[in-house]
Amino acid sequence: PALDELELKAVVDDPDALRRTLLAAGGVPGFRGTMEDRRLDRLGELSARDEVLRVRTFLPAALGTSGGTPRARIAWKGPTRRSPEGYKLRRELEYEVTAGPAALALFEALGYSVTLAIDRFIEVFELAGATLRLEWYPRMDVLFEVEGSPAAIEAAAAATGLPRARFLADDLAEFVARYEARTGRPAVLATAELPGVAQEWNRR
Q1: Residue 116, number of CB atoms within 10 A of its CB
Q2: Which residues does residue 85 pair with via DSSP β-bridges, in sequence order?
Q3: Which of 20, 99, 143, 196 is the most buried (most CB within 10 A)?
Q4: Could you tell me if 107 and 55 are in contact, meaning their C-beta atoms sit under 8 angstroms apart?
């Protein structure tokens, strides 16, 4: 069944300090490694409706640890809305699949093509009923995502010690725009654009 996904994101200045804070607050570490997103469209029909079709592949930092073997998910997301409480809200359908490349091949056979590639090194935690994710991009601010029920989001956000005003219901594109305006440099979201980034991530 489709689920309503609620989330907030924040820019993180010191991810190491935040990690320590989460662990001290009882955060339970989960997956750690590379998350590859491939967004697809067919003649712009999905973007015209503000919908997303995505194949996401999870590559553990070390096989056998931090999440086991590689895995993948396909997802559809509906138009972006705001919940009454002010959280980012999207309708979502998501399914586990055995292999990301096979899913991409299926969609490409149906006429879809990759329109956006996003690669992140992530660390996932569970805390206060919320799912938390630290995200490092090839060249962009480090982001922190909090997903869950309104109560869980607020409890987890408070546990971080970060100012509540830093948590926003904005899309990734808005964080990118602010990064570029502040630094004067283009953000880079895919490792192919910065060779060597993936190898550096594996040393984290």
Answers
A1: 16
A2: none
A3: 143
A4: yes
Asked if 140 contacts 188 with a C-beta cutoff of 8 angstroms, the reply is yes
The tokens for 72 are 């993948």
pLDDT tens digits, residue range 99-151?
A: 888 999 999 999 999 999 999 999 999 999 999 999 999 999 999 999 999 99
DSSP of 56-123, one letter per residue? EEEEESSTTSSS-S-EEEEEEE---EE-TTS-EEEEEEEEEES-HHHHHHHHHHTT-EEEEEEEEEEE
Question: How many other CB atoms are there within 10 angstroms of residue 3's CB atom?
Answer: 10
Consecutive H or E run containing 39 = strand 28-41
> What is the number of helices (H) and of strands (E) in the chain?
6, 9
| Residue corresponding to tokens 């999207």 | 90
pTM for the model: 0.90
Q: Which residue has the tokens 């989330």?
A: 7
Could you give the CA distance from residue 105 to residue 130 in angstroms, rounded to a whole number? 33
With tokens 């070390």, the residue in question is 62
Which residue type occupies 149?
Answer: S
CA–CA dist 109, 2 (Å, integer): 25
The closest alpha carbon to 120, from 56, 47, 46, belongs to 56
Tokens of 104: 């991409």
Q: Is 51 helix (H, G, I), strand (E, B) or coil?
A: coil
Q: Measured between alpha carbons, how far is 110 from 99 in angstroms, rounded to an integer?
A: 17
Q: Any idea what the Cα angle at residue 186 is, between residues 36 and 58, rounded to 5°?
A: 10
